[in-house]
From TrEMBL:
Belongs to the Gfa family. Residues 4-123 form the CENP-V/GFA domain. PROSITE patterns: CENP_V_GFA. GO terms for molecular function: carbon-sulfur lyase activity; metal ion binding. This is Uncharacterized conserved protein. Keywords: Lyase, Metal-binding, Zinc. InterPro entries: CENP-V/GFA, Mss4-like_sf.
């Protein structure tokens, strides 16, 4: 049984993940607003080698320059255009899943909201998240990812 499963609106892209997410956050940056078509992006970071795609169409890839200056490669279903996931080409081991595609979105439990300085006034924040004015600090993303991958090697 996969821990996570999801896909696109037309069903031609499906995925299953056998690991629970390492990081869960909401990002209010301009780029995530464009990519999600909404006020923010809800994202789960999962290990790429625990994620299996079943793709009956082409994925469409699009590179963006994140606020951090790093390149983020986003993909969407080539048929229906649903956002699926993203990854950093310079860090292939991690995939950022778009939570809107999950079969069970109630699994999403974000700990942080980042780039709240870019958030729209008409969109409320969650009461229990830690809010950061700018991008994720090391303790939000880098440290948990490093801890996860080093624990797997042990
Ligand atoms: Zn689709
Ligand atoms: Zn963002």
């Amino acid at each position: 049984m996969p821990l996570l499963s999801g896909g696109c609106a037309c069903g031609k892209v499906r995925y299953e993940c056998s690991e629970k997410p390492i990081v869960q956050l909401i990002c209010h940056c301009r780029d995530c607003q464009h990519a999600s078509g909404a006020a923010f992006a809800a994202t789960m970071f999962v290990p790429a080698d625990r994620l299996d795609y079943k793709i009956e169409t082409e994925l469409h890839f699009y590179d963006v320059q994140a606020e951090s200056g790093r390149t983020l490669r986003r993909n969407s279903c080539g048929e229906c255009g649903s956002p699926i996931s993203a990854h950093w080409p310079d860090m292939q081991g991690v995939v950022l899943l778009a939570v809107g595609g999950l079969d069970d979105q109630s699994m999403f439990q974000p700990t942080h909201e980042v780039w709240v300085s870019r958030a729209e006034a008409w969109h409320p924040f969650l009461p229990d998240t830690i809010k950061l004015d700018e991008g994720p600090t090391d303790d939000v993303v880098r440290d948990p990812l490093r801890a996860y991958f080093s624990s797997r090697q042990g």
